[in-house]
TrEMBL record:
Keyword Hydrolase listed: yes
Recorded family membership: Belongs to the SMP-30/CGR1 family.
InterPro entries in the record: 6-blade_b-propeller_TolB-like, Ricin_B-like_lectins, Ricin_B_lectin, SGL, SMP-30, SMP-30/CGR1_Lactonase
UniProt xrefs under PROSITE patterns: RICIN_B_LECTIN
Alphabetized Gene3D superfamilies for the sequence: 2.80.10.50, TolB, C-terminal domain (2.120.10.30)
Key words of the record: Hydrolase, Signal
Name this protein carries in UniProt: Lectin
A Pfam family it matches: Ricin_B_lectin
Domain Ricin B lectin as annotated: residue spans: 29-154
Transmembrane annotation, as ranges: none
Coiled-coil regions listed: none
């Protein structure tokens, strides 16, 4: 969907300071496509991040080479580089490329009336030859208001007052490219689904036990970890949960509950359990695994068959991605084998799903009503488990077998890894400033609750999105 034209100057540090002084939240950096003449997208040729790579028009695919982030410093960034006028030229026809970000006027752009004006030359981003053909190179040219100089930027979003994320811009989330988290405590059978409760300044997480009974169903409890004291306690026994999330009002824990093959809600004050989704068109789910919640209350969840145990399949062999809104369950996708971790971007416009058995992370555009658009590939990563996102929109996806968290920019660029234990399952941001990443990882049971799972933590540069 094309976004409306934005009329603003990105380099507005003084104005941002004034707004912040009034207590009004400032707009966060936005990431998405820049569309132009003929509905084509601004694209980095060949998807390469080498300095000097030409920027062109191309049919919109939503791929990493077309994902641009607007910065409060006036920059437009893709693939870790900045939109740049070659050699800082001010001449008509000077080529536009990507280059290492350096803060010069050649890399600062102002949007006004749909035009993108370069600060160094005062000239406009222009599709050469008034052409919309794939491969049309971009240049700067004297501003004339023609259709080949009209650009639609990704829409910025303004967080609600008191929201979980501070205003950007944000830098690299990782202090270094390869990090190792610190163990907080182990000795649990199989930990999953951490979520931060800001009201109590505690972390909730699931401890799953080995299967038992005639259908070999795994029992589980929700634990509470209090960082200020280092203590762990059982919050809800026999919760039947796996992945956990938090409602936007902070009053309810949303749980993927495999004991009843459902999605449930636990009231934080009373611990009372209610069912949000019991089945799809009369057929029981496999074993809901991971869950996230949108701003409008839409719940998104994955339904692999890991914890279905010996219960009969009612999904005709499919493993699925669903959403539930106002009690109505809708199918998002039934073609991903073993979908697992599921996360929403902070602006609510992108849904990420890890394909545990497909070797890919997928993304879906999210519409205003909570429905989703066509699926596309986000990154290649095998054996995905749970994940989370940070306030800059970076995606954290776990691979179970090697105990690593893989961090990707919103454009799909690999930023680095965080190691934790042996078999990592999930992660969530928390702490007073939201910058501690908590990770569940360890050694699975060989029978009789003999697993040894622990909670790990690491401080990062960017705070996280708690939902």
């Amino acid at each position: 969907m094309r976004t409306r034209h934005l009329t603003r100057t990105f380099a507005v540090a003084a104005a941002a300071i004034a707004v912040a002084a009034l207590g009004v939240p400032t707009a966060q950096a936005a990431t998405g496509t820049i569309t132009g003449y003929g509905g084509k997208c601004v694209d980095v040729t060949g998807g390469t991040s080498a300095n000097g790579t030409r920027v062109q028009l191309w049919t919109c695919t939503g791929g990493p080479s077309q994902q641009w982030t607007t910065g409060d410093d006036g920059s437009l960034r893709a693939l870790g580089k900045c939109l740049d006028v070659a050699g800082g030229s001010t001449l008509n026809g000077a080529k536009v490329q990507i280059y290492d970000c350096n803060g010069t006027a050649a890399q600062r752009w102002t949007s006004s009336g749909g035009q993108l004006v370069n600060a160094g030359s005062g000239k406009c981003l222009d599709a050469t030859g008034v052409s919309s053909a794939d491969g049309t190179p971009l240049q700067i040219w004297t501003c004339g208001g023609g259709a080949n100089q009209q650009w639609t930027l990704p829409a910025t979003t303004t967080p609600p007052a008191g929201g979980p994320c501070p205003s950007g811009p944000f830098g690299n989330p990782l202090p270094s490219q390869n990090l190792t988290a610190t163990k907080i405590k182990d000795g649990y059978n199989f930990l999953e689904g951490p979520v931060w409760d800001a009201a109590s300044q505690t972390l909730l997480l699931t401890n799953m036990h080995d299967g038992s009974g005639p259908q070999n169903v795994q029992a589980s409890d929700i634990l509470r970890f209090t960082p200020s004291t280092g203590s762990f306690s059982t919050w809800v026994a026999n919760s039947g949960s796996n992945g956990l999330s938090l409602s936007r009002d902070g009053k309810t824990v949303i749980a993927a509950t495999h004991d009843q093959r459902s999605v449930s809600a636990y009231d934080l004050a009373t611990k009372q359990r209610t069912t949000l989704a019991a089945n799809y068109q009369g057929h029981q789910f496999n074993s809901p695994n991971d869950v996230t919640v949108g701003a409008d209350g839409t719940v998104y969840f994955t339904d692999p068959d890991f914890q279905r145990a010996d219960r009969p399949d009612q999904m005709s062999g499919h493993t699925d991605v669903f959403r539930v809104k106002n009690g109505v369950v809708s199918l998002i996708d039934d073609s991903i084998r073993e979908p697992n971790g599921i996360e929403l971007s902070p602006d609510g416009r992108t849904l990420y799903v890890g394909g545990n058995a497909t070797g890919k992370i997928y993304k879906y555009p999210v519409n205003a009503d909570g429905s989703t658009g066509p699926r596309s590939d986000f990154a290649a990563l095998g054996g995905t488990d749970g994940g989370t996102v940070d306030c800059a929109g970076n995606v954290y996806q776990i691979t179970f077998s090697d105990g690593k968290i893989h961090v990707f920019s919103p454009a799909g660029q690999a930023l680095g890894t965080i190691s934790a234990g042996q078999n990592a399952t999930n992660a969530a941001f928390g702490g007073p400033d939201g910058r501690t990443l908590y990770i569940t990882s360890g050694r699975p049971s060989s029978g009789g609750d003999t697993g040894n799972y622990g909670l790990y933590g690491i401080r990062l540069n960017v705070p996280g999105w708690p939902y």
